[in-house]
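assembly run, all chains below
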Amino acid sequence: MSILIDKKTKLIVQGITGREGEFHAKQMIEYGTNVVGGMTPGRGGETALGKPVFDTMKQAVAKTGANASVIYVPARGAADAILEAVEAGIRLVVCITEGVPVVDMMRVTKRIAETGTILVGPNCPGLISPGKAKVGIIPGNICKPGPVGIVARSGTLTYEVIYALTQRKIGQSTCVGMGGDPVHGIGFIEALEMFERDPQTEAIVVIGEIGGTDEEKAAAYIKKHVKKPCVAFIAGQTAPPGKRMGHAGAIIEGGTGTAADKIAAFEAAGVPVAHFPAEVAELVEQKLIKLKAKPVAKKKMRK
Amino acid sequence: MKLHEYQSKAIFANYNIPIPSGKVASNAEEARQIAAQIGKKVVIKSQVLVGGRGKAGGIKVAATPNEAEQLADQILAMTIKGLPVRKVLVDEAINIAKEIYLGVVVDRAAKCATVMASAAGGVEIEQVARDTPEKIVRVQVDPAFGLQEFQARDLAFAVGIDKALVRDFVTIATGLYRAFVANDASLAEINPLVVTAEGKLIAADGKIVLDDNALFRHNDLEQLRDIDEESPAEARARKAGLSYVKLDGNIGCMVNGAGLAMATMDVIKFYGGEPANFLDIGGGAKADKVKAALEIILSDPNVKAVLFNIFGGITRGDEVARGIVDGLREVKTKVPMVVRIVGTNAEEGRKILADALMITAATLEEGAQKAVAAAQKQ
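ok done. output:
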């Protein structure tokens, strides 16, 4: 198993004829993702990377039976692209685009909530279920199939953690980059819920950063609902208040959203917090070793 | 991007929000003329993009045009929290009976706009939120419908608006919400919304923060940018497509990715150093971007060492390394450069960088320690 994407994912690439769209579509196909087509208005009937291109998402879904889409269109068209995918009945929409206005995202997330569509992003690296499928821009070559689920607000920081895990020969079930914008699709809690149910996932890594209170809520959720071992990392301990650190959502406002608060919340929930990205892998390894030791200990107890 | 009080109030006026009569002045003589036009007691208000202007002496009341000229002259010579006062707003003085807070913010958790009101107006809302959170009332707005009148009435009654003024309050609150959406704001705030001694509502002060991501569809608003809001280095970075935030330390950082850039700063601090900046160079790290980034980092005289932290993903490590070497060739400097590069083709990348006499590191921890040591030696 894995979460959200696997071999059954049938993907449409929105913006496949653009520079980014084409580059990453090629990477996804090479990774083995089942890309069933692309969509660019006005380019219907053409092919791109050997896949059919459609003018509209409705046509794309009707012809291919697609169940997921990934968006690489410029920011001004991103909200429209998400809504078009939703109207066409796509169940999983992944928006890579950075710089989408917040007002647009407030409208989009309202619609998403009504339809039950799962949105990942925007301003995110997408997701990968190693060995099965990748939707987005996470480099496939650093991943390895295995037991660790990752959910993160940042891209390269996620790659660092994946890389450190793979170096220790610890693979991943699914890595979810939820994105760095203040208003976005699924968050930590939705991913935690899915990882908790996923039989392949044995341990979960949560990678947060300054801004908002999503991490605090995730920590509270873990304490109450998650039995699988979790490890956290929080970026931005040295970030000054009131300054936006690259991501639109990475800002300490009015005293809320500090790294110190988030670290304290995880520690209070019994989740160890790494000091630097590579230490995440070390902590996960310890958790997995403990996990393997546990069932034996239990059996002994019963005797 | 932040707007000044006078700019924010001009926007409010377009949405049926009453504002005091007044005008902005760039010199004392202009201030005198505006005061004479208004023909009664006025308030001279410094226009700088920081809070606490009143406490700093940047807001003064003048009884006569001559006094307005005198005070404007004083205020225009001030620097408040490092920002020079270049303009003053000359507003008619109002007789305050009561001060209310009214604001529209992006509610990250609810994924919608929330309108907040409080009877404790005139002080920073963050302080009210900390000290007396029960004094703030909130309504969440469905973006499909906008702020409904009943919601605005709920706020009005909750903050104790006089019955005779509820209708006016509804006009102001719905106007503020429309201004927020139409201008793609991330904050629109009236603080205080004054109930005057004569029984009228008026926006005595205002603040709008715009969503930088939406400026592409608001050319008119982009024109309102105050160049003093950003340092020259920050402005240059913005134009070069880099995110840069200057900090107080001495180790410059150049990193691909915002989260990783923050983590890099944190690790420097962990090993006893102080980061000089946040800089996200984005994916790719091509020579021209490296050059621009390096020039920006080195424009800070405090920088004693630079740490590059690059993750080679889809962009290969050797390509990035060549970009760095090419970029460095064009920037002459004696500041030591430490490079940590991992991921795809990292070995090849490290070799290219070592040949270019850069200090290389295999892990972020090692890179940070080497950068801290290099900075101390300088």
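Residues 126 and 136 of chain A are 4 Å apart (CA to CA).

Residues 277-302 of chain A form the longest helix (26 residues).

not gonna interpret more than that til we talk
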